[in-house]
Amino acid sequence: xxxxxxxxICCLLFLSACWDSNEIEDVGLIIGxxxxxxxxxxxxxxxxxxxxxxxxxxxxxxxxxxxxQNLTLEGESFFEIIRENSLETDRPPNFTHxxxxxLSEKLIEEESVRKLISFFLRDHEFRRxxxxxxxxxxxxxxxxxxxxxxxxxxxxxxxxTQNNDKSLEILENTKFSELSSNISEDVSFVIPEIEINxxxxxxSGAAIISDQDxxxxxxxxxxxxxxxxxxxxxxxxxxVSLTGQEEKHSEDHVVLEIITAGTxxxxxxxxxxxxVEVSVNTTVRLGxxxxxxRDVFKQGWDEKITKDAENHIKxxxxxxxxxxxxxxxxxxxxxxxxxxxxxxxFYESHKKNWNETFKDVPISVDVKVDVxxxxxxxxQ
Length: 380
What we know:
There is one protein chain. By secondary structure, this protein is of the alpha/beta class. It has helices at residues 2-14, 52-58, 78-84, 105-110, 113-116, 118-122, 139-142, 153-159, 176-184, 222-231, 303-327, 335-342, 344-350, 354-358, and strands spanning 28-37, 43-50, 68-75, 93-94, 100-104, 131-135, 174-175, 189-197, 200-209, 216-220, 239-241, 254-270, 273-289, 363-374. Helix 12 (335-342) crosses helix 13 (344-350).
């Protein structure tokens, strides 16, 4: 009997549940962080706090206060700023639910991204899945834009890239773990850009980060983002429009829906010199066609559409290769990875000055488009 009692008491010790738990109202849950420069060239840090008392009421019929609060402070270091929060709030900051990190253009022009993330790499609460963005706007303004689909601006910012399978202009999230990995591997990379458009936050391109100093090197517009996605084999869907803006009222306006897409990179050594062949294969469906005279039941009806689509995609890819090699002389295209895998001896002998080698590498692009089916068409 005594043994059973002792055993029961011991079990209770191990089943003590959440003895060290904290009430959500007593913890400063931070779901978004923005880094910028403030006055006197000090660092500026915006924390987006959850206001638990306003969450439930904000979902009801009665209006209530905002479910979030932004607190922007300045200091010589991020650690100092976080400690400064103690003077303005009684809730210790907690980063375990952080969703997005926004960096300003001015900040990454002057400071290395490697240095900026060093603090967060050491923080055990900072998750590696946090999405990172760059903006030309003032970060404090970005974090204050009222969300239209989510409760918190930081969550809506992260979710902006969820439709990357619907548009060629949307990159996948750059996670904090990928940021850290790229820096560790000493490679150039891109980070999605966000902006304020008609009081709403939207994606608008990408920032190029140089492997030389891990600072901002330049920008890609939305058209160049399309080429980057084709080149890096990250196309999951989207549309190919075969008429330019100047022809938007053309009777031959054609829009193709991407069904499948795949890109292969083939580095080759010929006479001791490197060349790269890019091969793109995609299957599309005729989604919109303003040419009501087109007979889709006639053999060869899709020949012109196929050729135009191949030229369009090829041009899109070349639009991002050209600035990478000639304007920035940076391999943010990720070609070094394929050279390292398929031509390791060549890469080992050129990796120390890879950007110098990269800018002179001939890159050929071959695109094959298969038009597989068509949507509804007005044949009147």
